[in-house]
Amino acid sequence: MAREKAVEHYDVVIIGAGPAGLTAAIYAGRARLNTLLIEKSLVGGLATYTNEIENYPGFPDKPKGEEITNLMKKQAQNLGVKFKGVLVQSVDLEGEEKVVETFRNKFIAKSVIISTGGRPRTTGGRDEEKYLYDKGISFCATCDAAANENKHVVVIGSGDAAIEEGMFLTKFARKVTVSVMHDKGIMDCNEIAKEAALKNPKMDFVWNSVVEGFEGEDHLERVVLKNVKTNELIPVECDNCFEFIGYIPNTEIFKGQINLTPRGYIPTNEMMETNIEGVFACGDVRDKWLRQVATSVGDGAVAAVAAEKYIAESETFENYIMQKEKPSLIYVYNAVDQESRALLPVVERVEQELGGAIQLVKVDCYKSQGIAKRLGIETFPSVVCTQDGKIASVLNENLNYDAIRALY
Amino acid sequence: MKEVILDCMGEACPVPLIKCQNKIAELEIGDVMIVQIDHSCAMKNVPEWANKEGYNCELEEVDDGEWEVIIEKSR
């Protein structure tokens, strides 16, 4: 028999405390939203696996990733954000009340921000886990290339990322050995990258090879490759190894609810909105071009402000626009449209004539179409008439005084 | 289903982890163990161990530099 789960209510629940989630939490906290941030392992996300972050603006002294994210955490805590260190087991995101469940709690939120990030795919080679991240196996040349001045590095993979990042590494490293699983001359990357790579004097290829294992005292010293045709083992002495064999977004629990790309990323628009109203995605989990702390931070800010707007709109919609006390005349217009503006005095005249018997609400859709969407209005200008908190009629063509007046 | 508190305050690694491993062996499936720690290294290795063992686990910062790790012996 399972224990009863404690229910807690929040304005916003953020899943994943990497730079995107932490930034979203800072913005949500500062907007006075009751905010919960849930993280399954360590606060800071993938950024904490990096020893030096040299390209995050404002931090010129190459701090550890953890130093930056710990400051972000402190900032979020100062703004009243609550933290929980636990795995999210399931979500139910449809509808106005979003449900996020852990093994002990059921969190009910008005809005959910997904910032679950991703993880690099690994080779599964022998003892790989001993050398991950700061012990010699890296997944990001943009992050770690500069630390390989005059060293010998091994790159695993032959896709665009592997070859392009491998070429970038040759600017620093003495030698770059690339393990390719295909026959000589065959790579998964684009032709231009392939030509350039084959001509690069610092690049060396081991064809028909995969990783068998990793060896070294404390730090990686040797990658043992295996020829897939002959099963011959090829030990390669090196300083560091970069694996570029793909990236797996952490979206398993959202499958079937949130739209995902074929690779499992969450597509969003510019406001970080997903296909479900009130659910936003930001950071590495999003389908986007560049995955960096700097871009995650930007995403997080947008997602939280969009969530705040969504919640405010929901409240306005329920408490004001769809009020039950008296009939409403809701005028949905676009302030930059001449025809829309011309009708403003007309609706005001109708309101005056009815003297307090109705409530006039003017909804300008220029900046946000959220409320229009909730009303099911797609053309502007439109007039919506409500009775007892429900839509009674909608007018969206031939709008004039007589037509509007006739509604009441 | 009982709930036990394991006080590891003031204890440095690896003592909290070893205490957890010993204590959980006495518990039955469904029981919950609340481990109190104030050593930041245990804040990492206790949840890591619990997750690896497949137990449900939650880390809560109860005060500045003080944590509770709630572990359910879920299997």
Overall mean pLDDT score of chain B?
93
The amount of helix of chain A comes to 25-40%
User: Spans of chain A of 5+ residues with little confidence (pLDDT < 50)?
Assistant: none
The CATH superfamily of chain B turns out to be TusA-like domain
- What is the distance, rounded to the nearest whole angstrom, between the alpha carbons of the first and last residues of chain A? 58 Å
Query: H/E series of chain B, N to C?
Result: EHEHEE
The CATH architecture assignment of the largest domain in chain A turns out to be 3-Layer(bba) Sandwich
User: Total domains of chain B, how many?
Assistant: 1
| Sheet of most strands of chain B | 4 strands, mixed
CATH topology label of chain B: Translation Initiation Factor IF3
Average predicted confidence as pLDDT of chain A: 93
CATH class of chain B: Alpha Beta
The level 1 CATH classification of the largest domain in chain A is: Alpha Beta
What structural class do helix, strand and pairing data of chain A support? alpha/beta
Shape of chain B: globular
% residues in beta strands of chain A: 25-35%
Instruction: Return the domain count of chain A.
Output: 3
CATH topology tier name of the largest domain in chain A:
FAD/NAD(P)-binding domain
Detailed description of the structure:
The complex is a heterodimer of chains A (408) and B (75). Chain A is an alpha/beta fold and 408 residues long. Chain A has helices at residues 19-30, 65-78, 141-144, 160-169, 191-199, 293-321, 338-354, 370-375, 401-405; strands at residues 6-15, 35-38, 82-86, 90-92, 98-101, 105-114, 118-120, 137-138, 152-156, 175-179, 203-206, 209-215, 222-227, 233-237, 240-243, 247-249, 279-281, 328-333, 359-364, 382-387, 390-395. The longest helix of chain A is centred in the C-terminal third of the chain and has 29 residues, at 293-321. Chain B has two helices and four strands. In chain B, strands 1-2-4-3 form a four-stranded mixed β-sheet, with helices on one face. The longest helix of chain B has 14 residues, at 40-53. The radius of gyration of chain B is 11 Å and the shape is globular. The mean pLDDT of chain B is 93. Chains A and B meet through β3 of A and α2 and β3 of B. β3 (82-86) of chain A pairs antiparallel with β3 of chain B, so a sheet runs across the interface.
